[in-house]
User: What shape does this take?
Amino acid sequence: MDKCPPIILVSACLLGQKVRFDGQSRPADLGCLINKGCLLLPICPECAGGLPIPRSPCEIEFSGNAKGVLDKQSRVLSVNGRDCSDQYRKGALHCLKTAQSINASFALLKEKSPACGVCFIHSGNFDGQIREGRGVLAELLYQSGIKIFSENQIHQLMLAIEKS
Assistant: This one.
């Protein structure tokens, strides 16, 4: 019996969809995944959570982290101070339910995003600085056992797929 192709959740902006806060996309070269027969499912937790396109930039507050946002101990704030935590939690949960319903084992997410950052997010001060940390969706997927990778880790994702 043939092995089913891996299903990978992919940040929609990496697939060329104009869903970023600024109404733009950040297409990544995903040809190697397509050539491998992977099924790529676009997701955008911000859109799934009800945030508009375009929207004000958001960051996880400086003293917080994604786990804290999920536990309602930290917040995701817009540049004008609006608390968008509920939308980020709602969108992350929607994406997790989607992943579970289709048995996705992997996710390829946009680094530095307050939703999708895998290794890095913005500082929380809206100063352009970066700090270590995960976005809200990345944290939820990680906690749920889905292997997460950023657009800078496509080679590692390919290796993980080969081992699965």
In short: The CA atoms of residues 71 and 155 lie 32 Å apart. DSSP finds six helices and eight strands in the chain. The helical segments are 31-35, 45-48, 66-70, 85-101, 136-143, 154-163.
